[in-house]
Structures are given as structure tokens and as C-alpha cells.
Amino acid sequence: MLQLGYSLSSEEHSASDLVRFAQRVEQVGFLFALISDHYHPWTSKQGQSPFVWSVIGGIAATTNKLRLGTGVTCPTMRIHPAIIAQAAATAAAMMPGRFFIGVGTGENLNEHIVGEKWPPLAVRQEMLEEAVSVIRLLWKGGIQSHRGRHFTVENACLYTLPEETPPIYVAAGGEKMSELAAQIGDRLITAGDEGSVIKAFNTAGGKKRPKFAQLTVCWAKTEKEARQIAYEWWPTAGLPWSLLSELALPKYFEEAAESITEDAIAEAVVCGPDPEKHIAKIRKVAKAGADHVYIHQVGKDQEGFFRFYERNVLPEFAVQDRRAA
């Protein structure tokens, strides 16, 4: 059964607002949320980028039912996987049965800040595979050590562990990454390329595992206003993934987006107050194989979006079992 969730956009909102939005998500009826883990926003206009693990603590303390995960964390460069293992274990202990961690190969935008060379994709995939093995190792408890090609752990023991370790979701784009996600992950995360990615994930052995897809929308009182907001706040919707992963600074994204038109953004983002457009797009993503769709509302008017979805979109999708996420 299709489940709908919400995207907590750390690039656009302050830490306190993200905590407040998570509470509203629970009230409105979304069953889960993913929160982005960035050091920089995509563009300076977006203007935010709080430390995700602090925000997760606030959400854990102020929600009761909402399932929450990172969408997604890069556990390879900016933060060592042993620290990510501790952070995720603590979050899961605070949110029993409600927390999951999404991981991916990362973006240069966020990872270059520690001064390490940005590796090619094949190396980043190799690093991610090893990082996930380190995380799972530490979640076993007891004193653990690891000496691999990319990471070293010496006599580390996680004393705060949840009763049940959280599932690991792996973000994928492209066939090779989809295959890796099926090998090392419990679930799949994708965005914008659901059909090909999900097909490759299923072929590689992930057919029976849940698939999560992000859908970017912009609700506003008129379609014209929504198009303008989406174009102003989320021009990266028109950029190819190769640029999203490789560019290093927000100003580079701004320069890359200068040639993108408002029409192009409106093609990539569902814009306006017509519920049928939103519902049709959600169903299209589900038809591509996603059983969990989480919605990213662009811009500052999150409350208007919540009211719109509560009244006009969520009732179209009967969602019952929260545990299935």
C-alpha cells in the first residue's frame, strides 16, 4: 500500500522551524519524513543548513508517532562512519521503532569542507560500501575494530544502542548504484528517476524491499505564484545529477542555474493549487514502483501546503500501517 511522507528541507528552513514542521507532519497525517543532511544549501537564497543530528534530537523530543530518517547522510568524508553509527544509534534509542538512516555517496557541496580530495564516483561507492559495513559492525555492540581500505576503527564500543537497530536506506541513481543499494541496503531511496532505478534495484535482488521516492512540488494560491517561487527557491531542479554531485559551492549552482528557464523548473516541479496535478504525479511515481513517496514543498509557505494536502491530497491515499515504513 502506498504511503505518503514529507521532506524536511534543511536547506530552506531553520532548525526550530524544522522541528515545528515535523510536529505538523504528524498532526496532518503524513506517516514518515526524511530530513536532508547538508553542510551548505544548494543556493545562498535557500539560506539555511543546520546540523541535522541536533535537529533530529528536537524532533525526537516533540513527536510521538512520526517515523523519521535522514535523506540522506554521507557517512564517508565529512563525518567518519563510526561517528555516524553512534549518532544513528542514539537517535534510534530516542525514537524506538521510528528512526531510520538514509545513506548515499554524497555531494562535493557538503563533503569538500574537510579538505579531502573529492573522489570519483566509483571510489565513493567503494567508500560507502565499507562505511555501511563499519556502521553495522558497531551496531553489534561490544568492542570492535576495523582496518579497511578507507576507514580504521580501533577498540570502539557503542554503549548507547537501541533495542532494535534501525534499517539502512541507500540512495541510488543509475544502474551501478542501484545494484550496490540492493547489496548493502535494507531499502531504496531515489528521486526523479524512479523507473530505471527501481527496475535495476529489483533485478539486483531488492524486489521485496520498500522503495522510497522524493517528489518536489510547490503549492501556492495560484499556479503563476507557485512557478515563480519554485524558480526562485529551487532552480537546481533543472540541473542534471552529475552537476548536483560535483559542484562545490552554492555560487556555482547559482551560475549553473542561470540558463534554466521558469518553464523548465515547472516541468520538473509540480506547481500550483490543483490537487489533481499533485495526485496524478504521486500516482505516476507509484506506478514506477515506489511504495513510499515523500513530498518536498518548495518555499516558505509550509503551512499552506500542509492545509492543502490535509484537505485535498492525503484523503485520496488510504494509509494505515505506520510500521511498514
Overview of this structure, please?
This protein has helices spanning 15-28, 52-62, 81-94, 108-111, 121-139, 175-184, 194-206, 223-233, 241-246, 250-256, 262-268, 275-287, 302-312, and strands at 3-8, 32-35, 67-70, 99-103, 144-147, 152-156, 168-171, 187-191, 211-218, 270-271, 292-297. The chain has 325 residues and is α/β, with parallel strands linked by helices. The protein has one domain (3-324): Luciferase-like domain (TIM Barrel, Alpha-Beta Barrel). The strands form two sheets. An eight-stranded parallel β-barrel has the order 1-2-3-4-7-8-9-11, surrounded by six helices. α2 links the parallel β2 (32-35) and β3. α8 crosses α11. Residues 320-324 have low confidence and may be disordered.
Shape: globular
What is the C-level CATH assignment? Answer: Alpha Beta
Class by helix and strand content?
A: alpha/beta
Number of beta-strand segments: 11
Major β-sheet annotation? 8 strands, parallel, barrel
The name CATH uses for the topology is TIM Barrel
Instruction: List the secondary-structure elements in sequence, H or E.
Output: EHEHEHEHHEEEHEHEHHHHEHEH
Number of helices: 13
Q: Termini, distance in Å?
A: 10 Å
